[in-house]
Amino acid sequence: MAMNLNAPSLAPVGLRAPQGAELQRQASTTAVDGIANTFSRLFDEVNSLQLNADRKVEEFATSKEKDVHGTMIALQKADLSLRLLLQVRSKLTAAYQEIMRIQL
């Protein structure tokens, strides 16, 4: 009653299901794409807040009606979002450096 656990697959190489390193590569690519999309969206949101703050400052300087509160709120939102983005970048950089120090 011998069992052959390592029987070769009869499917052509191109038709085999991904295994081992290929599965890891696909999972890694999917994770990187997800992170890239998230950061792209974050960059766009921060840029939008910065542009809105710039527009509010320009309106404040040129219009007769002074919206001090709206201008200050827009400036604070832009400042806070930029600070948050910089903190996330710092944490990711530190995590990357820590991972690179790990010896296999």
Shape: elongated
Mean pLDDT across all residues, rounded? 82
Oligomer: single chain
Low-confidence stretches: 3-15
Helix count? 2
Which percent range describes the beta-strand content?
Answer: under 5%
Instruction: Note the gap between the termini.
Output: 41 Å
What is the number of beta strands?
0
Helix content: over 70%
Helix/strand-derived category reads mainly alpha
Largest sheet: none
N to C succession of SSEs: HH
Radius of gyration: 26 Å
Name a few traits of the molecule.
single chain, 104 residues, mainly alpha, elongated, disordered N terminus
Fold and architecture overview:
The protein is mostly helical. It has a domain at 32-101. The chain contains 2 helices and no strands. α1 packs antiparallel against α2 (68-101). The radius of gyration is 26 Å and the shape is elongated. The two termini are 41 Å apart. 3% of the residues are buried.
Describe the SSE topology.
Blueprint: H1 21-62, H2 68-101
Helix pairs in contact: 1-2
In short:
The chain is built from 2 helices and no strands.
